[in-house]
Amino acid sequence: MSTTGLYQLTEEHDAIRAAVREIAERAIEPFAAEVDAESRYPIEAQKALTAAGFHATHIPEAYGGEGADAIATCIVIEEVARVDMSASLIPAVNKLGSMPIILSASEELKQKVLPSIAEGRAMISYGLSEREAGSDAAAMRTRARRDGDTWVLNGTKAWITNSGVSEWYTVMAVTDPEKRANGISAFVVHRDDPGFAVGPKERKMGIKGSPTCELYFTDCTIPADRIIGEPGTGFKTALRTLDFTRPTIGAQAVGVAQGALDAAVSYARERKQFGRAVTDFQGVQFMLADMSMQIEAARHLVYVAAARGESGDDTDLGRLCAAAKAFASDVAMKVTTDAVQLFGGAGYTQDFPVERMMRDAKITQIYEGTNQIQRLVIARSLLK
Ligand SMILES: Cc1cc2nc3c(=O)[nH]c(=O)nc-3n(C[C@H](O)[C@H](O)[C@H](O)COP(=O)(O)OP(=O)(O)OC[C@H]3O[C@@H](n4cnc5c(N)ncnc54)[C@H](O)[C@@H]3O)c2cc1C
């Protein structure tokens, strides 16, 4: 196996982590419980991240962005998720929505969209899934047909993160039904485009601060030059995007798990039963040790996968990114569940953050491809 893309954290990475942690603890964490309880958008987080330039660090300098590498972007997402998973979807989905453009759009389209995201004037969402086409995304039914100097879109996308708050939407639609996956194209839609509408918010188990809605396209008409790349290349672009963004879901998972472990350590230190701190019991110590081990292993795998994408060496990229996403999210589910356990009855109440973290962690096993789909990707790579 090639070792290209193995990583070395730099002083700059450490400085980014320290800066984001300070912002997260000061300007994001105090609102996290309220954002969850009221299912409201974490606007304070958006403002704080944007003011510090951490809302979309991955955008290249040529388009007014920070040009941060993939590990730096993971660190930003991880540190925000440590205090509030919903807020971590701001940098994460800005990357997800814009990667198709960065990877495959014309220079004109890049110049049109990317600076507005880099400057924090706009956010961008990613519209691939449909109600009847989730894991089997190529079975999508949203259509786009060329009409003179325009493309006209019809259909519905489902479960689209940050819809309503995003100005831009990367949307995959069928342009040639005969060709199935090779007949899908990618487009950029603006929320003011005629025929575009956002549906009501889904009522969810977790990440309640991040709006998830349907997108409706009813003869939605966009200029012809808003296609990303050539007609028929949209599905490839959509899948290639996931190779660069699955590590960011891994980073979210590592972050929420770390937040839960930190909370569990500080609670268990203070909690006394049988006349002593519960941390005196080896049963508790071993749980904490396991949580710490699993998080550390997940963090390294996430950084290795991110570094492989950054290296330009695609060898094994899909397998590593799928492994990072699936492993880290399985760890997040286990660690947050164990954190609730370590809090005892208190962990089951909304007086402490761990019940929110456990609910939030669950989505990392589902979106950007369920963990069953990640395992399919890994197995296909092994068996090809
Ligand atoms: C909160 C939230 C936010 C989301 N954000 C976005 C977004 O921003 N953009 C976007 O495009 N999508 C988004 N999604 C959609 C998400 O990516 C899909 O829900 C996910 O890919 C699974 O698709 P599905 O829900 O249709 O499940 P299904 O495909 O119906 O799967 C049902 C079950 O069958 C299993 N399964 C399916 N096929 C196989 C197989 N071949 N082998 C083994 N098991 C299989 C699945 O793992 C799952 O357990 C979001 C979803 C949620 C809930």
Describe this structure in words.
Helix content is 52%, strand content 15%. It has ten helices and ten strands. A four-stranded mixed beta sheet has the order 1-4-5-8. It has a four-stranded antiparallel beta sheet with strand order 2-3-7-6, with no helix packed on it. Strands 9-10 form a two-stranded antiparallel sheet. The chain is globular and about 80 Å long. Flavin-adenine dinucleotide is lined by residues 125-129, 134-135, 159-161, 204, 207, 212, 363, 366-370, 372-373, 376.
Q: How many domains would you count in the coordinates?
A: 3
The major beta sheet can be summarized as:
4 strands, mixed
User: How large is the radius of gyration?
Assistant: 21 Å
List the secondary-structure elements in sequence, H or E: HHHHHEEEEEEEEHEEHHHH
**Uncertain residue segments:** none
**CATH fold topology of the largest domain:** Butyryl-CoA Dehydrogenase, subunit A, domain 3
Strand content: 15-25%
Helicity range: 40-55%
Q: Please state how the strands of the largest beta sheet are arranged side by side.
A: 1-4-5-8
Shape: globular
Task: Give the topology, please.
Layout: H1 11-37, H2 43-51, H3 70-83, H4 85-104, H5 107-118, E1 124-127, E2 143-147, E3 150-161, E4 168-174, E5 184-190, E6 196-201, E7 212-223, E8 227-228, H6 234-270, E9 272-273, E10 276-277, H7 282-311, H8 317-343, H9 354-362, H10 371-383
Parallel strand pairs: 1-4
Antiparallel strand pairs: 2-3, 3-7, 4-5, 5-8, 6-7, 9-10
Helix pairs in contact: 1-2, 1-3, 3-4, 3-6, 4-5, 4-6, 6-7, 6-8, 6-9, 7-8, 8-9, 8-10
The structure holds flavin-adenine dinucleotide (FAD).
